[in-house]
Write a structure and sequence with these properties.
The chain has about 290 residues and is mainly α. It has one domain. About 70% of the residues lie in helices and about 0% in strands. It contains eight helices and no strands. α2 crosses α4. The longest helix is centred in the middle third of the chain and has 40 residues.
Length: about 290
């Protein structure tokens, strides 16, 4: 450390591979699964004959895509056509995170870590993971606002008067905290309850009775706290994302009017060009 300087080694501690949190590995595993699915869908679509009726895997993908596009159209409006791909990506990431936490894959990727061979947890039990996708929503929301409102975007921070700037700056970050803590809290609560069930069955009653009741009670607990709760969090997070982003744009009705006005302007320009061409032809023929 330099005298009078700042020791960045103390401010930022670089972690080795075996020191990385297992939730990070669960998150990476979910992303790898999504990448494999994306490649598989790409290959299937390239080989797909559009004249044939879709079936099997392609049919399922088409149904899910149509559902996501319909939700985007209903909640966000026609201005966000194509946003369904991002919603699908986030939704699948959240679902896979809860699913990985349910099946309990052993951590074989960190041979010298204290968590070696322990079950990989739900990635959202670490606040960094829900915060990362909440920040993406935050960036998309304010990018949309700046793109549409331009310099008037900054007026929101001084409304109704400039003295409200600190409060408005805090309010700006509230959606990030809301999305993060909701997902983190539900994932952590489910993890704690399932852990208590296993501990209770293993220690509160006789061990051999624990082996009898665990296969009966544990699956229902996992179905509720991992699958059902994961689907609820998927729906809540994606719906709030769509609402937050679309609220920064004009209403669907105004968008339709704007598109009609653009279409009419193009038609008028085309009509004027055709009239000019006709006048030129008349002038040439008169000569």
């Amino acid at each position: 450390m330099n005298e009078g300087g700042l020791d960045f080694n103390r401010v930022i501690e670089w972690l080795s591979w075996n020191e990385l949190p297992p939730e990070f590995l669960s998150s990476i595993l979910a992303l790898i699964i999504m990448l494999i699915l994306t490649i598989a869908i790409h290959i299937k679509i390239k080989k797909y004959d559009p004249l044939k009726k879709p079936s099997g895997f392609i049919n399922a993908v088409e149904m899910i895509t149509e559902f996501a596009d319909k939700q985007v159209m209903d909640i966000m409006g026609p201005a966000f056509k194509g946003f369904g791909g991002y919603i699908l990506f986030v939704g699948l990431y959240i679902f896979l995170g809860f699913f990985i936490g349910m099946i309990g894959l052993p951590n074989t990727l960190q041979p010298f870590a204290p968590t070696y061979l322990e079950a990989l947890p739900n990635p959202f039990t670490n606040m960094a993971m829900p915060l990362s996708i909440a920040l993406i929503t935050f960036i998309l929301t304010h990018y949309t606002a700046i793109k549409y409102k331009h310099w008037t975007y900054f007026e929101r921070y001084t409304e109704p008067i400039a003295l409200f700037l600190p409060i408005n700056l805090i309010t700006m970050r509230s959606p990030v905290l809301s999305l993060t803590l909701r997902l983190f809290g539900n994932a952590l609560a489910g993890y704690c309850i399932i852990t208590l069930i296993y501990v209770g069955l293993g220690s509160a009653i006789e061990p051999y009775w624990g082996f009898v009741f665990e296969p009966v009670i544990a699956p229902f607990a996992h179905l509720y706290f991992d699958i059902f709760d994961g689907l609820i969090q998927l729906a809540v997070f994606t719906i709030l994302t769509m609402i937050n982003v679309s609220n920064e744009y004009i209403s669907p009705e105004d968008f339709i009017k704007m598109e009609e006005e653009k279409k009419n302007k193009k038609l008028l320009k085309k009509k004027k060009r055709e009239e000019k061409k006709a006048l030129k032809k008349e002038a040439k023929s008169a000569v």
